[in-house]
Every structure is written in C-alpha cells, then in structure tokens.
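User: Some background: our group keeps a shared notebook of sequences we're curious about, and every so often someone picks one and asks for a predicted structure to add to the entry. Today it's my turn. The entry only has the sequence so far, pasted here. Could you supply the structure so I can complete it?
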Amino acid sequence: MLSRLGRVALRFSEGMLSLLSLTDTPSQIMKRIALWSLILIGIGLAVWGMAKFATSSGSQPYLIARAISETDWVKGNREASVVLIEYSDLQCPACAAYAPIVNRITEEFSDRIAFVYRHFPLPQHQNAELASRATEAAGKQGKFWEMVDQIFANQDTWANERNAQEVFRAYAQSIGLDVAQFENDRNSREIKNKIENDYLSGIQSRINSTPTFFLNGEKIQPQNYEEFRNLILQKLNPHP
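Assistant: Of course. Here's the predicted structure to add to the notebook entry:
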C-alpha cells in the first residue's frame, strides 16, 4: 500500500509539472511550486502516518497476549517471566478436553509460570456467556477456579440446557457459595463488562477459535501434554 501511494505521488507531481505554461510569469511559477510542495508534503505525511500505524497495530496483539491485567484470573506467579494465556469458551468441547492438560501444567510448574484465563464465548454457543458469568460470580467469593473445573467437567450436562442458569445455581451451591450473592453478582454490569473486555482483547489478538494459547506473547498450538510441557521448558531454560 505504501509503495502504491509513492507511485501515486510521483505520477501526481509529474502530471502537475506538465501543466506548467511557458507563458507563466516567475511569480506564478513560484506560487504553483509552493502549492504543489505543500500537497506533496501532505502526501508524505500520510504515508509516514500509515507506516507508523501499521507498525504499532502489528505489535499490539503481542502486547495484549503477553501483559497481565489487574482483572485477569491468574494461577501461579504474576511476576513470573513465563506467561501462558488461554482464551477459552466454557461450552467449547475442545476447551473442555484441554482443561485437564492445563490443570496438570499449572500444577507441575506452579509459581514458575503465570497462567492467565480469559473468556472468549463464541456466539454460536448459546450458554457460553452465561457460563462465563457463573465463573466470574464464583470468583467474587474466591472460587473462580473451582467453578471453572465444575463447569468443564459437566459440560455435556448444561451445554444444551434451555435453563442453564439453574444448573449453574446448583453448582454454586455444591461448591459452598452464598447462592443469593452468586445470583446477584452473576447479573451485575461489572461482570458483564469483564467478560466483554476479555472478548475484545481476544478480537484484538486476532483470535477466531478456542482454545487459543499464547506463551510469552507467541501463539502456540500444542496437541498434548508433552508438547505443552516442552514449549514451557524452552522458555524457562532458553540456554540449556
């Protein structure tokens, strides 16, 4: 695109110069040259601005997929040099299949890494957003991860339920939550905004499927526990 703009600028200047009249006075010529110079400077600034934007927007997904925010749910050590981020849909069968692998990874590496969970409820999953809200409401009472585990483990039970809210209410009771507070928090604007913000950060990170994992800002696609483990070990021990 930038080279195309450069060619446009060149053709523009050549075309304008061809319009010079041999009968123009020196004063008229200087005025036209000044005008064309301003136009060309404007084109140059536009090209520079587009190049600057392309550079900054290209690095943005890396920054989002690496940085830990204050509202993120984190297992392990927030200050760890190795950060694993998952964008997940609680109704996604593949996410449920990865859940035991991720739990095993976080248990093994403990405070040597930071594992960050972010919501990315896909629009085709009717109960995914409700499930996300249930986990966030449980988090208000200190049991975010317990609710995530409960929801993944029983995904087949609630995924196609017309009244999934009642199922999640039962899960809240089973893990010892204050159910009235859970219901109130689940419907709060604060929790809805949290999920929307997670989703938007996923869009900015160019996510189109779940689960999507980033390891220190780099998108990874491990197929099993061993691949996951080896990728993390490479980051922990870059120079063995």
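Suggested note for the entry: The two ends are 43 Å apart (CA to CA). DSSP finds ten helices and five strands in the chain.
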